[in-house]
Design goal:
single chain; alpha/beta; five-stranded parallel beta sheet
């Protein structure tokens, strides 16, 4: 069963796939659309099942995600299911009110300025640590503190 649901705007697919690769290389199983949607399955129902089956929700956040009604619905469902949420900002964008309500509490990882790949190792370490129910390793904490990690 997958551990991490990766939410993203389809316009940010390259960042989502890079994140997916970094996590799966560490042995962390992920759920991402459309890869994990079985052909013939209703899309919305598959998304809901994917969120329900995971213990963590990783949001690739950008201006595109900020404008996406689909991303807003996914975030709301993840919050309602009590999933650990890790927002990863790939652009210097503040969430619109609908997303700000759900994303104001979790600590953000700012994955900019480019290159995005520079941030993947500390992100993967943090995800791995949370999944093992322990504190993030000191290298991940140091990397996040070196960045302007707080959104607001």
């Amino acid at each position: 069963m997958p551990e991490v649901f990766i939410s993203h705007s389809s316009k940010d697919r390259p960042a989502a796939l890079a994140t997916l690769s970094a996590l799966e290389q560490r042995g962390i199983s992920c759920w991402i659309a459309p890869r994990n949607i079985v052909p013939g399955t209703e899309y919305g129902a598959a998304i809901l099942k994917g969120i329900e089956d995971c213990s963590m929700f990783l949001l690739i956040f950008s201006g595109n995600a900020n404008q996406s009604p689909q991303v807003r619905r996914e975030v709301e469902r993840a919050v309602s299911k009590g999933l650990v949420i890790i927002p990863v900002r790939i652009e210097d964008v503040v969430p619109q009110a609908a997303l700000e309500y759900f994303l104001s509490s979790p600590h953000w990882l700012d994955a900019f300025p480019e290159p995005f790949e520079h941030y993947l190792e500390s992100l993967a370490e943090s995800v791995s640590a949370f999944l093992q129910h322990r504190e993030p390793p000191s290298s991940a904490v140091a990397a996040s503190q070196a960045l302007p990690a707080q959104l607001m």
